[in-house]
Amino acid sequence: MARLGLLLLLLLALPPHSSSVSWPDTAQGTMANLILTALEKATLFLEDRLPTINLDGVVGFQVLEVQLRGVQEKWAHKPLLQPLSMRAGQMANTLSALLQKSIFYLKQSDPMYLREFQPSIQPGFWKLPNDWTRTNASLVYPWLEPLDSFSEESSDVCLVQLLGTGTDSSQPCRLSNFCRTLMTKAGCSGYSLSHQLLFFLWARMQGCTEGLFLQSQHYMDIFCANMMELNHRAEAIGYAYPTQDLFMENIMFCGMAGFSDFYKLRWLEAILSWQNPQVGCFGRPDTKGEPSEVPHQQGILRRVRRREKLFADGCSCHNTATAVAALGGFLYILAEYHPDNGDAHPEYDPNHGDPYSSSQSPARNYQDGAAGPDVQRTGRPLSVS
Ligand SMILES: *[C@@H]1O[C@H](CO)[C@@H](O)[C@H](O)[C@H]1NC(C)=O
Q1: Region Disordered: start and end of each range (predicted)?
Q2: Which end of the chain is more exposed for a tag (fewer CB within 10 A), N or C?
Q3: Domain limits of the chain?
C-alpha cells in the first residue's frame, strides 16, 4: 500500500507534460496501465475459479466488460492510445467468452436465482452513463433508520418484479405498492440503500420510464448523496475490512448511475491496494487457517450478504465483483476525460488532495466540489476533492 501510495503521489507531482510526450507515458497512461494490470489479474482469477463463481460475481465482470468496450472505443481512434485500446478490447473478449461459459455453471449451482436475475448478466443490459453529474450533500439524510432496514430477500423480490422474471409472468417495470414503498423509503443505509439505488439503476437499464420512474433521477440523486456520505465514513474509519465491500459497491452503482465524484484518485489508490497480488481477487486480508464460511452476523456498516461466497484463501466473489466494476469505472472515466489533447493532467490541488480527515464534516468535505455536470465536464477527471 505504501509503495503504491508513493507511486501515485509521484504521478500527481509530475509537471504537466509537454505535447512532445506521448500520452501513454504520462501520469494518466501510467494510471490506465495500473488499472488494466489489476483487471487482467482479476480476469485470471475469474477464469481460474469459473465453475464456482456465483451470479453476483458474474454481474461485476459483466459490468466490467461493458466498461472495457467503452474504453476500447474511445481510445481506438487515437494512434498513441491504440495499444491500450487493444489491451482493453482483448480483455473484453476474454470476459465475453468466460461469462458465456459461466451461465452453464450457474444453471447447475443456482438455477432459480439465475432465472430471476439472468437479464443482469445478459450482454446489452448494462449501459454506460450518458451524462455525468455529482452528488449534492444537501440531500444527505439528517437521520437514519435502524441499520439495514430491510432484508436482501425483500429487495430481491422487488428487483425480480422490475425485471419481470418472476413466476407470475408479469411484465417488466410493474411494481407492487410494497416495492414502491420499500424502494423509496427515506433514511436507509448500508446494503438497503445501495439496493434502492440499484433498483432505479436497473429501471433505467430496463427502460422503465412511467409512473414512479418519472422520478428516477430524483431518487438516484438522494440515494447517491447518502452513499457518498457512507463512503466518506468508511474512509474515515480506515476502510476497516467489512466496509470495503459496500464502499466498492457504492462506487460501482453510483458510478454507473453517472455520479463522477465517486471516482476519487485516493479511492482508486485504496482499492488497488486491496487486491490479492498473487491470486488477483479481492476479499478478506490475512485469512491463514481461518474457516472459509462467513458467519451470518450484523456488522456496524455491513451485513454479510446472504449469497456471499468466500473462498478458503479469503477471496470473495462479491468483493471481487464490486472491485472490478469500480475499477472499470475508473478506467472509463479516465478515457472519457482524457483525449490525448496535450493537457490531459489531473489538477492536483494540495488543499483538496489530503485524505479525508474524520475531524471534518463529511458534507463540507465534498460540498466544495458539488458543481454541476457542465463544470465537471471541463474540470477534473478524477475527483481529488
Ligand atoms: C442541491 O439540492 C438542494 C436541495 O434540493 C438544491 O436546492 C440545490 O440547488 C442543489 N445544488 C446543486 C448544486 O444542484
Answers
A1: 343-385
A2: N
A3: 27-286+296-381
